[in-house]
Structures are given as structure tokens and as C-alpha cells.
Sequence to fold (210 residues):
Amino acid sequence: MNTVNIKKILLSSVIFFAALAAFSQQKKDALVEYRAGRYESAIKICEQEIANNPQNIDSHCVLCWSLVRNRQYAAGEQRATEARKLAPTDVRLIEILGEAKFYLGKNAAAMELFQQYVENAKNGARLGNAYYYMGEIYIRQAKYQHADIAMTASVHTEPLVDYWWTRCGYAREMAGSYASALEAYNKALELNSAQTDAARGKERVSAKLR
Fold:
């Protein structure tokens, strides 16, 4: 093999691996952008990835997460519904579709999806989210004991989210469980002393316990 051919092979290899690295970086960037809160950027990257490979379920998931976090709930619902035609049992799509429907006020459909997620994703990364949204739906429906159970599950799954503890306290307060509501409000304030809703809730239930 002469020197010219060797150089051509080396050049082709360099171009191939550079293109592969760029593609891999692009895939990574969508999730990085999402986690950094740059949702519009993540959406654009995912759209390009899906155009290149419509079967890329990871891209569909990050796209839907980004749309919902960007408050594009109708678009998130539509895209998650379409993606589920490709992967109907993917728990990530089930959960994010539930979130989109929750924000659109479609409580019954959202609840069904969150229940599916809880049943099928025992150690899912968004298990706490699913329980939290279930609790919020029960609060909307004035089913406060059910809300207490769901919110308690959410804070046990992810115990460092002060807002969830606040909402757990509210569900317990509305259910008439003032002592346990006080515990939840205290936990919220322990995590975030500036949590004003928890402070107000603590005042209310403390007065009732006197």
C-alpha cells in the first residue's frame, strides 16, 4: 500500500470519527440542555434528532420533558401521544403524558397515566413526581385523605423537596390531621425557611392544636 492510499485511509478515518463524535455530542446536548433549564435549545436538538431518526425514543422523551417544562402543554401532550405509538409501554412517555394532561386540567386521564407509571416503574426516576401529581389531582377533587396518602408517598420517595412537604401538610390539614400536618410544614421549613406557604400553614394548624 503506497503512502497516498494510507493518507486517504487516515483522512477518511479522522472524518468518520469526527462525525461520530459530533453526533454523539449532539445527542448528549439535548439532555444537558434540558437539565440546565434551556428547554427551547433542547427542543430544537431533539427535533433534529427525530428528523434524522424517527425511531429514537430517547429523543422523543427529552423533547416531551422539555415541552412540558417550557409550559407548552398541548404540544407536549400531542408529541407524547405520538411517541407512544412507537413505544406504548415506555414508562417515561407514560409519566410525561400524565404531566401534560395534568396541566391541561384533564384530571381523570392524568390520574390513569400516573397510576400506570406507579404500577410499572417501581424504581422509576420520576416516581416521586407521579405521586406528587396524583396528590394534586386529589386536592383538586377535594379528596384530602387520598391526597395525604399520595403526597406522603411523594415525600418518602424524594424527601428533600420542600414544596412537596408543604403540599403534603396542606392535604393533611384539609383532611383534619393537624398534628401530622404540622410535622409536614415543619419539615418544609427545615428544608427551606423561606417557604411562606409552609409558614402560614404552620400558623393555622398550630392555632387549631392549642
Summary: Confidence is low (pLDDT under 50) at residues 16-27. The CA atoms of residues 43 and 118 lie 27 Å apart.
